[in-house]
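FIELD: query
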Amino acid sequence: MVMGDVEKAALLAADAETLLASRPYVEGRVAPARLFGGASVRVMLLAFDAGQVMSEHRVTVPILVQPVEGRVTVEVAGDEPAAHELGAGGILYVPADLPHTVVATERARVMVTMCGPIPHAADRVEG
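FIELD: result
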């Protein structure tokens, strides 16, 4: 957490149970929650109901996609293979401005870390 010009440590979750409880599932939706926002990193937790799709979009900074529960498929434009299957503990790096789609093959909670200087509205996806 940024306090003036000094960055301070910020506990986002002490354990997996606390992390998962911070974003409950919403039937038929993708439900986002911001866990942390700083000058150089932003952390989101997305709860996907089974079968939900986050349609093709891009983010203005590089991201790390990390399922912490369940399974998702991340389709990244220009990648070979284009579809990456991720389960809990998997990690996928997606460069800035690269179009991608996320499909929940089952209920899933996915942590997304936005890396680098965060423009004012970097967590707004562009689709």
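FIELD: remark
The chain has one helix and eleven strands.
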